[in-house]
Specification:
Layout (H helix, E strand, L loop, with lengths): L10 H24 L19 E7 L2 H8 L5 E9 L8 H4 L7 E8 L6 H12 L7 E2 L2 E2 L5 E5 L2 H16 L10 E4 L3 E3 L7 H4 L4 H6 L1 H10 L10
Parallel strand pairs: 6-7
Antiparallel strand pairs: 1-3, 1-6, 2-3, 2-8, 4-5
Length: 232
């Protein structure tokens, strides 16, 4: 289930939410700062000599925050919220939310490999976009639909991903082992329109303040050379 806060709140509850948001933001920022020591991948492709497009699908909890992060990474040309891991007939939010479809909330990232390497995208994914050591949950959201996963589209992406996970585990960068699944992409299904660019139109919503805005602050702080302002 996804823990989201909508509707009308009492004043007392809003005060509690505000306090929790502050504490969570501080906690998430601390985690992201610790993640700044994550090394670059030892195995990576060099920047391409000519402009082109590559695609990869990342799953790291609620797609709202993951999409917002990658929309602000230089070299990324598009980031779309959607579903991967299941079949087309069940790629609908209400069904995926049951946790029984095989789908994960995902973000399809299209990037220009002459501007950013795949390894750099992985570094952002593992250090800012989510916690890769949480099994079948992310922050307040629990269920297999919130699992950590990478759906690669080329053998080279698979090779670099597996090498980087091994590198980070051997270096004990995280206090627990990485649980990210690495699978070949068999289908990506865009989410409903109201999920696209959700963060940008709900910046004061407690769920966004609590869980996702700290990710953008960490991206800006930890990867200033990769950060770009999102075009509205």
């Amino acid at each position: 289930m996804k823990v989201r806060m909508f509707g009308i709140f009492s004043s007392a509850f809003l005060l509690c939410v505000g306090a929790l948001c502050f504490l969570s933001a501080a906690c998430n920022t601390t985690t992201a700062k610790a993640a700044s020591v994550i090394p670059s991948p030892a195995v990576d492709e060099p920047l391409a000599k000519a402009k082109s497009q590559q695609t990869v699908v990342f799953s790291g909890g609620c797609f709202w925050g993951v999409q917002a992060v990658f929309q602000r990474v230089k070299g990324v040309t598009s980031a779309t919220s959607g579903y991967s891991g299941g079949v087309a007939s069940t790629a609908h939010y209400e069904i995926v939310s049951t946790g029984g479809t095989g789908h994960a909330e995902s973000v399809e990232v299209t990037y220009d490999p002459s501007q950013i390497t795949y390894g750099q995208l992985l570094r952002v994914f593992f250090s800012v976009a989510h916690d890769p050591t949480q099994l079948n949950h992310q922050g307040p959201d629990s269920g297999t639909q919130y699992r950590s996963a990478i759906f690669y589209t080329t053998p080279e992406q698979q090779r670099i991903t597996q090498a980087y996970i091994e590198q980070l585990n051997q270096a004990k960068v995280f206090p627990r082992r990485i649980v990210t699944q690495v699978n070949s992409l068999r289908g990506f299904y865009p989410a409903e329109d109201y999920h696209q660019d959700y963060l940008d139109s709900h910046t004061s919503e407690p769920y966004i303040v609590f869980n996702d805005l700290p990710k953008l602050a960490s991206l800006r702080e930890q990867f200033p050379e990769l950060y770009k302002e999102k075009k509205q």
